[in-house]
Amino acid sequence: MANTESQHNNGAANNAEQPQVNLQRIYLKDTSFESPNSPHIFAQKWLPQLEVELNTQALKIADHLHEVVLQVTVTAKLDKETAYLAEIQQAGMFLIKGLKEDSINQVLGAFCPNVLFPYAREAIDSVIQKGSFPALMLAPVNFDALYAKKKQQVELDQQKVSRQTH
Questions:
Q1: DSSP state of 44
Q2: Of 20, 73, 87, 134, whose Cβ has the fewest other Cβ atoms within 10 Å?
């Protein structure tokens, strides 16, 4: 019996050491929609210039628990007039265990935004349609590439500062 308990306890210890990334909750943290030039903007031919901005933030809430917020801002203009400005903050709580700091940063900066993006895309499309504008299906985003580019830029900036101080 003692051997069985010992094997069972070792199995539990091994599970605790296994890397874990578990989604705990997805929620809409903030939403905003403005159509400053309606209703006369509806009389114009709909050929907008779209600007899409993406930002992410991560906040450690407790041991192993992190909030990640994906902010999507879409601005549509006809000539120089703003047709609409829509902003969504799609958030999620993620439990992350058994990873080194660099891996945690990559999970928070790439994996988690990838999980949140479909929800943000649906929310931004919904609010735009409720403003009586045509549907907008945002193209997929490669958050892994964006994270790698941002990490590379931070490293370059650190090298410049290091050279300037020496």
A1: S
A2: 134
Burial group, residue 78, by CB count within 10 angstroms (0-12, 13-18, 19+): middle
**pLDDT per 10-residue tile (average), the chain, 166 residues:** 50 65 96 97 95 96 96 96 98 95 92 97 97 95 92 80 72
40 located within any domain: yes
Domain count across the chain: 1
Host domain of residue 28: 18-144
Instruction: Tally the residues of the chain.
Output: 166
Position 138 in a domain:
yes
H or E segment at 3?
A: helix 2-17
Does residue 70 fall inside a structural domain? yes
C-alpha distances out from residue 87 to 53, 55, 114, Å: 9, 11, 18
